[in-house]
Backbone:
């Protein structure tokens, strides 16, 4: 049995049957990385202590047997913006090329406690800004389904790692679609949790009112397993929500915002209809809903996000962290360090953000975008008073060619279906839907389900129904 073909849930079960050791599983994944990384450019670093951690996991498995923590010896790949004490975290930027984390992100503390081992850090768009991983300072990551295409972004490396079986599961982060969109383009399950469900402590910040860490996997159960491990209130992040038991939605009604869905490519819409038919056959009721503010989500996002980016990245001034370029005075040093350290897209957003926050423009842009966020939340509240889920395609199309979306606005449109969930804090999951063909290659496209805040467990139910998945957790 090749362990790289298995899900994390299956590996955990096999450990308990003594089919193989954590060392064998880790080595098998590392072999895939050695084989595939030169062509795919997924991992920026494979951690040098991964095998030592695997040996420790084997000790735990032999000492504790079935009572060992659930994730013992499960290799997890990490997006390069999640801090692991003593390891580099560069957010795929020249600015933080040699930045070594001085503490563990809360998600890391929780995964460690549950026995997980970290196999390496994955490529991403610089500071999580982008939808293709082309904005990395360390080269583009290729889509394992077609290496002339992007894996999506910004968590493109974490998605490609799982799609190419270099890791069974990984963590990414979302500000607007950066888990769901690469999950869609790589044929994976990806979850954007409810805002505040997962601590942001130790996540290199992009847009603090939008950011959430979330998992990628090849099964719903694996996504659920990781989510249940990393979630929960955290004194290090004041926006985390108080702990509560799983909340379920009331019924099996799915709302489809028909006018909004028309933004997807023709064949993606046809595939989406087929996916809805699958759900009907599973006892779900599909109804049309109005979501009039949906198309404005992206416009609001591209004001709020750069405003927060310009603020969060102000700390990267060449003095406190990362790259330092000498100059004749302090201002020159700031300018030289930031000019050399940041890439083009990052600079574009810092400039945009400074502009929308400047006096005279604040009311016209930032304040109106904030109000629009409220309008979108109202529309969703109204929709959820009738339906339990809202379904759309995850992305307007499948993976696009490297270099195809060189115009920034065409790239921004990738996130059209993602924006409402991030702007309003609701959870959303992407699952593989019906593939479409481009240039003779069959490419995955996701179906997205959104639901009211804190009803992730219902998203797992519908995702499992849709995928016909029966492989369940070891224990709940
Ligand atoms: N693709 C979006 C952007 O470029 C979202 C990024 C993200 O979710 N981190 O901003």
Residues:
């Amino acid at each position: 049995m090749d362990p790289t073909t298995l899900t994390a849930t299956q590996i955990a079960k096999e450990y308990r049957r003594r089919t193989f050791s954590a060392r064998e599983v880790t080595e098998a994944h590392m072999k895939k990385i050695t084989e595939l990384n030169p062509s795919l450019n997924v991992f920026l670093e494979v951690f040098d202590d991964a095998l030592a951690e695997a040996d420790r996991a084997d000790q735990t498995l032999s000492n504790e047997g079935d009572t060992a923590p659930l994730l013992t010896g499960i290799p997890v790949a990490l997006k390069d913006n999640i801090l692991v004490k003593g390891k580099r975290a560069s957010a795929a930027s020249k600015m933080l090329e040699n930045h070594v984390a001085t503490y563990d992100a809360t998600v890391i503390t929780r995964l460690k406690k549950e026995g997980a081992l970290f196999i390496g850090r994955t490529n991403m768009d610089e500071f999580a800004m982008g939808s293709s991983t082309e904005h990395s300072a360390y080269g583009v990551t290729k889509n394992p389904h077609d290496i002339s295409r992007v894996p999506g972004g910004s968590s493109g490396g974490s998605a490609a790692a799982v799609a190419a079986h270099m890791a069974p599961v990984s963590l990414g982060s979302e500000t607007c679609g950066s888990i769901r969109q690469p999950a869609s383009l790589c044929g994976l399950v990806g979850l954007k949790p409810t805002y505040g469900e997962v601590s942001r402590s130790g996540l290199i910040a992009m847009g603090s009112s939008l950011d959430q860490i979330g998992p990628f996997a090849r099964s719903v159960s694996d996504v659920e397993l990781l989510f249940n491990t990393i979630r929960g209130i955290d004194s290090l992040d004041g926006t985390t929500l108080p702990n509560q038991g799983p909340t379920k939605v009331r019924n099996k009604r799915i709302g489809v915002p028909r006018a909004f869905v028309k933004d997807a490519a023709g064949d993606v819409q046809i595939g989406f209809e087929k996916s809805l038919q699958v759900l009907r056959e599973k006892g779900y009721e599909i109804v049309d809903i109005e979501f009039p503010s949906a198309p404005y989500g992206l416009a609001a996002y591209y004001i709020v996000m750069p405003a927060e980016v310009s603020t969060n990245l102000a700390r990267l001034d060449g003095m406190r962290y990362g790259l330092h370029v000498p100059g004749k005075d302090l201002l020159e040093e700031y300018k030289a360090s930031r000019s050399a350290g940041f890439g083009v897209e990052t600079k574009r957003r810092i400039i945009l953000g400074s502009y929308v926050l400047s006096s005279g423009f604040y009311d016209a842009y930032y304040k109106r975008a904030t109000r629009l966020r409220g309008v979108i939340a109202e529309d969703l509240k109204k929709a959820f008073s009738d339906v339990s889920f809202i379904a759309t395609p995850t992305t307007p199309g499948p993976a696009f060619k490297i270099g195809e979306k060189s115009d920034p606005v065409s790239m921004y449109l990738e996130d059209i279906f993602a924006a409402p969930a991030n702007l309003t804090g609701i959870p959303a999951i992407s699952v593989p839907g019906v593939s479409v063909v481009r240039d003779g290659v069959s490419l995955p496209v996701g179906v997205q389900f959104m639901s009211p805040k804190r009803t992730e467990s219902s998203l797992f139910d519908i995702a499992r129904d849709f995928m016909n998945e029966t492989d369940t957790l070891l224990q709940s």
Remarks:
- The chain has a mean pLDDT of 97.
